[in-house]
Amino acid sequence: MQANGLDERTNLLVEEYSTSGRLDNITQVMSIHTQYLESFLRSQFYMLRMDGPLPLPYRHYIAIMAAARHQCSYLINMHVDEFLKTGGIAEWLNGLEYIPQRLKNLNEINKLLAHRPWLITKEHIQKLVKTGENNWSLPELVHAVVLLAHYHALIADSLSELEALMERMKRLQEDKEDEEASQEEMATRFEKEKKESLLVISGAFDDEIVSTDVSRYVEDPGFGYKDFARRGEDHLPTFRAQDYTWENHGFSLVNRLYSDIGHLLDEKFRMVYNLTYNTMATHEDVDTTTLRRALFNYVHCMYGIRYDDYDYGEVNQLLERSLKVYIKTVTCYPERTTKRMYDSYWRQFKHSEKVHVNLLLMEARMQAELLYALRAITRHLT
Ligand SMILES: CC(C)C[C@H](N)C(=O)O
């Protein structure tokens, strides 16, 4: 690593350590990508520690509830600590039965957001904002939703084909100039990819044993990303991205209700989307746009989100099966991720490049959750 790259990294870590009093594993792993880490920490700091609609202990309790959905005891312990430090009531840590009704009311949206955000409707929003003394104001609700999405996405616990892959990327870039698929053909390709993504089976099955340290914060623990394949169903509704985009709709709504968070998230999404070192393992000066875009769009595809102008045939050509299994696991069932899965794809790539993949997956998922929640809030308002 270059000397000034190292300096920058050290400075950032020192700063984070002195403002939050710790350097968690996640920050350390992310520090390989300094620019990204900076924008990640900025938005996290804002939602956890700066002035905002929700009181500090609430924020940490919400982080706990989010982390518990994916059984991440690491994040839970961290926020239990912070919850107490910021003046939270210790009794709440006995579990969901001990918290105020108002906070309890978040269980439903936490669950849907985490596993099946496409089921969120304006009725869910209405229920939260219109329940008399236990109601949530819209700014509070947006703050809560942002925290939930942030912590759902963060929970990825673990830590050739190369030439062929690069060849396919090159071909795709060239082909694009001369071949234009029809609208119907493009739509079919998305549906095909979406349907197949439902059939990708992730790691273990759900008879995992969950400790009470975690389960006390979870309502309806059996609720997960819907395994369409196992139930012989294949219907995941399609969300047309151009009808409700982050740039044109989500961003301004979130910014209006919880000032500045829109900018911070927007910067983070852009940062990760555009992040590139123009490398592929040992090769330099490679344009990796198609590959990075395929990773991002594949996550949205698993959540039913479709971009009209994107050809999902590219996903099919660039992402091999073991990578798809990894993506699905990290995105939908992060608690099942294993080191073995992480090692099984892209064997020739550098560790930092695989961390890069994880950052893309994480931000794509966070954005997908937010799109569904914000669309429901917009519908509630109109
Ligand atoms: C995810 C990786 C393939 C990204 C690549 N190393 C780049 O710098 O663009």
Automatic annotation (TrEMBL):
It is found in: Cytoplasm. One of its GO terms (cellular component) is nucleus. The keyword Transmembrane helix does not apply. Residues 155-189 form a coiled coil. It catalyses: a hydroperoxide + L-cysteinyl-[protein] = S-hydroxy-L-cysteinyl-[protein] + an alcohol. Keywords: Coiled coil, Cytoplasm, Oxidoreductase. Its main location: cytoplasm. InterPro entries: AhpD-like, Sestrin. It comes from the Eukaryota. Signal peptide: none annotated. GO terms for molecular function: L-leucine binding; oxidoreductase activity, acting on peroxide as acceptor. The keyword Coiled coil applies. GO terms for biological process: cellular response to L-leucine; cellular response to leucine starvation; negative regulation of TORC1 signaling; positive regulation of macroautophagy; regulation of response to reactive oxygen species. SUPFAM superfamilies: AhpD-like. Belongs to the sestrin family. This is Sestrin-3 isoform X2. The gene is SESN3.
